[in-house]
Amino acid sequence: MRTVLFVGAGVHQRRAIEQARERGLRVVAVDADPEAAGLAVADAGEVVDFSDVDAVVDVARRHGVDGVLTISADRAVPVVAAVAEALGLPGIGAETAHAMTNKVVMRRRLAELGVPQPRFAAVRSLQEARVARDEVGFPAVLKPADSGGQRGVFRVDSPDDVDRHLHATLAESPTQEAVLEEFVDGLELNGLAAARGGHVTLLTLSDRLRPPGPGFGVGWIHVYPSSLYADALEEAERVAVTAVHALGLRDGVAFPQLIADDDGRVLVVEVAARVPGGQMADLARHAIGVDVVDIALRQALGEEVGDEDVRARFSRPLAIRFLTASPGPLPVGRVRRVGSLERARAATGVLQADVFLTEGEVIRPVHVDADRRGYVIATGPTTVLALEAAETAARLVDVEVEQTADAAV
Ligand SMILES: Nc1ncnc2c1ncn2[C@@H]1O[C@H](COP(=O)(O)OP(=O)(O)O)[C@@H](O)[C@H]1O
Ligand SMILES: [Mg+2]
Q1: Tens-place pLDDT, residues 61-97
Q2: What is the number of the ligand 1 atom nearest to the C-alpha of 151?
């Protein structure tokens, strides 16, 4: 029996771990949190902080693993690449992993190859921030060079904003580095792509809608297919594929994130080298019948991924509505009771729904990815109707809260 190692085993990895086991694989998983949901469903779960690469290599050796991967954890991507190199397993290589997880390195590489992206500058101190803001201008986005999940990401409109937020941004970066970049106003797009032997196939391109306010970077609704059309759509497809090539990914699942502005430009936000979290894998499965988790598992094991594995089996409109507070469907406050999901799951068009809420936790207005506390995925005859179905069902998830002072922003 072949063994695969999952680096990171939280609630977002659990389903993939189960899927690997259903495929007849033995699963070893590591996570720093002994309570991590994925550890419990793996054949062997070890409590290891994956930022300790040697410790993960040691786990991989002891279990004689045949492949290593991560789902949705960006910080695990360089670790996966390092473990694969140490054991001589299939992987994307340390250099590509670095370029696809460090936003400064990524932006420099994309710039060298002329891939369209926002103006940017790297920042390590207030001093450097002064120079950077003159180069970049306002409005801008300040973000950690190497973090994820919208942690430490701020929209900044003035020099004061930069000074105010820089500390919090740098604190989210393990290497104490930030990027200041031009704020691009427009429609955000998420792509899912599979690179095989240096050939990149774009699987899906969907709209990623975001709330107003401080959570401006959180994808709280996904809609497939994208509302872009004609030249803009073609340009988005071209930029997504070009960016994956530019970053050197030859074999792997890629997650290009783009913004299309009103002038017809399509700019790269970032490209991740992994199966994304946030139900993107579910989006591809439900919308076109392609299973990116299965593709990632095969590639980790060095198995052939054929043309038929990346070909759309069908294509149908899809909407994912995340359960977030204000202005999403959830109330703000301390959770007293989470009702059954049955009504939401039985609603028209609903394909899948889940809640991650636990009693006693505090629901706050949406700021970061982690404030998405569940989701509803629905289909319909059109994207508008699919979204309406998802919205309607999301409001059927019954959550009772008590108001608390700490729930305010
Ligand atoms: N230059 C930008 N202009 C406008 N919005 C941006 C820009 N950069 C990031 N964002 C918004 O913030 C989100 C998070 O930024 P991203 O660089 O993808 O960081 P993370 O690694 O946290 O996902 C993006 O998905 C997008 O919605
Ligand atoms: Mg992102």
Answers
A1: 999 999 999 999 999 999 999 999 999 999 999 999 9
A2: 22
- 3-class DSSP assignment, residue 192: strand
Residue type, 266: V
Query: Could you write out the DSSP letters of every residue in 197-249?
Result: TTEEEEEEEEEEE--SGGGTT---EEEES-S--HHHHHHHHHHHHHHHHHTT-
Compute the half-sphere exposure of residue 387: CA atoms within 13 Å on the CB side of its CA: 15
What is the distance in A from the centroid of ligand 1 to the CA of 239? 17
* Tens-digit pLDDT profile for residues 258-297: 999 999 999 999 999 999 988 999 999 999 999 999 999 9
Residue ranges around ligand 1 (CB below 6 Å) = 118, 141, 143, 148-150, 153, 181-184, 188, 210, 217, 257, 259, 269-270
Nearest ligand to the CA atom of 269: 1
**Helices 53-62 and 77-87: crossing angle, nearest 10°?**
50
* 336, HSE (Cβ side, Cα atoms, 13 Å): 8
Quote the CA–CA distance of 182 and 139 in Å, as a whole number: 7
The string of DSSP codes covering 312-329 is: -S----EEEEE--BTTSS
